[in-house]
Amino acid sequence: MAKQPKLVLRESCAGDMSCGWQAGTFVEMGAGTGGMTRLFLDRGFHGACHDLGSDSRAMMRTNLAAYGEAIQVVEQIEELPGEAFDYLLAFEVLEHIENDAEVLSTWSRYLKPGGRLLVSVPAHQRKYGKSDELVGHVRRYEKAQLLKLIESAGFTDVRIVNYGFPITELTRRFSNYLVRNERGYEGMDAEQRSIRSAQAKPKTIARWLKVFSGRLVAPFCIVQRWFYGADLGDGYVATAVKRSQHGQASRASAGSISAISPDQS
Fold it and tell me: What is the pLDDT of residue 264?
């Protein structure tokens, strides 16, 4: 399946932000059909993942079957042991959740003290459009808002970069134009739209992706690094460290990582 330009850019940015991490155990929340999960399994990580949609979980099991025991797809997150994972991952999930602060705090219980968080969310509420509505977004985030959310859930050493600029300024507008008359998601609530968006794209988007995706977007993965600190792009990727019980963040086994700048690529 062809990848949307923003997904290609997000994968690259998430890779930049986690490039110094040692392979360990991870839990991924809202993993969809396992696309981002593969990126970490291919790097030698192992762990568990979950998605609200039963169909999505079934698709994940099929898509990730080749990794065998390296990954477990759980039916309920309550099946997972507490404070058992080195990394907590959630890509394009929090923006679908009304009570995002409560949910992130709940997820953090599965992370070891000193473990690392890696999340992505769409940026800038002023950019909210038809595409957001179709996939069940209840918000887009501002940088300060995301920082406050992560810190309130018990994390410190928060690092946030803004990715996607300049190409997403064009692709977002074009995407909103393509789906302006889309009616396939009417009658669904935000959760249902979210689950469906992980499984299939609107036909108008799917046709466009046959023309512009993958290798054509790859050069912009380099260009976007020049603007990570500019807060101009369409999305945020953030890392953080879970505080210990004594209120101090212990060093994760992965070591520290700083925001990537162009000359560090």
Answer: 33
E strand map for the chain: 25-29, 46-50, 71-73, 85-91, 111-122, 155-163, 235-242
Q: Which CATH number fits the domain that encloses residue 237?
A: 3.40.50.150
For residue 252, tell me if it sits in a domain.
no
**260 lies in some domain:** no
pLDDT-derived band at 258 (thresholds 50, 70, 90) equals: very low
**Residue 4 — pLDDT band, cuts 50, 70, 90?**
confident
Answer yes or no: is 254 within a domain.
Answer: no
pLDDT tens digits, 114-157? 999 999 999 999 999 988 988 889 999 999 999 999 999 999 99
21: domain range?
Answer: 5-246
Instruction: Answer yes or no: is 262 within a domain.
Output: no
- Number of compact structural domains in the chain: 1
Given a contact cutoff of 8 angstroms between Cβ atoms, the answer to whether 49 and 27 are in contact is yes
